[in-house]
Amino acid sequence: QNVQLSPGGYHGMLMGLTTALKEGDSFPVTLSFEKAGEVTVNVDVLSLRAEGPDCADAGQ
């Protein structure tokens, strides 16, 4: 099964950051999966107003 992380959909939250993130920043994140092991992906920091394709349906 494929899962896409996107604004308005599945997403991750970063807690306990020691510096502020700003729109346009990017950084690597390592995700740990039961079967796939560790996968490192590059994350782009988007505006808080960024919307995904299904944002209009949020909460319905």
Short description:
It is built from no helices and two strands. With 60 residues, the protein is an all-beta fold.
Radius of gyration: 13 Å
Overall pLDDT metric: 82
Provide the low-confidence segments as ranges: 55-60
Strands in their spatial order, largest beta sheet: 1-2
- Helical stretch tally: 0
Strand content: 25-35%
Could you describe the largest sheet, including whether it forms a barrel? 2 strands, antiparallel
Considering DSSP H and I runs of 4 or more, what fraction of the residues is helical? under 10%
How would the global form be characterised?
globular
The H-and-E topology, N to C, reads as: EE
Query: Class by helix and strand content?
Result: mainly beta
- The total count of strands amounts to 2
Distance between the termini: 23 Å
Question: How would you sum up this structure, described in words?
Answer:
This protein has 60 residues and is mainly beta. Helix content is 0%, strand content 27%. It contains no helices and two strands. The protein has a two-stranded antiparallel ribbon. A hairpin with a 3-residue loop joins β1 (26-33) and β2 (37-44). It starts with 25 loop residues before the first strand and ends in a 16-residue tail after the last strand.
Brief descriptors of the model:
60 residues, mainly beta, two-stranded antiparallel sheet, 2 strands, 0% helix
Please write out the topology.
Blueprint: E1 26-33, E2 37-44
Antiparallel strand pairs: 1-2
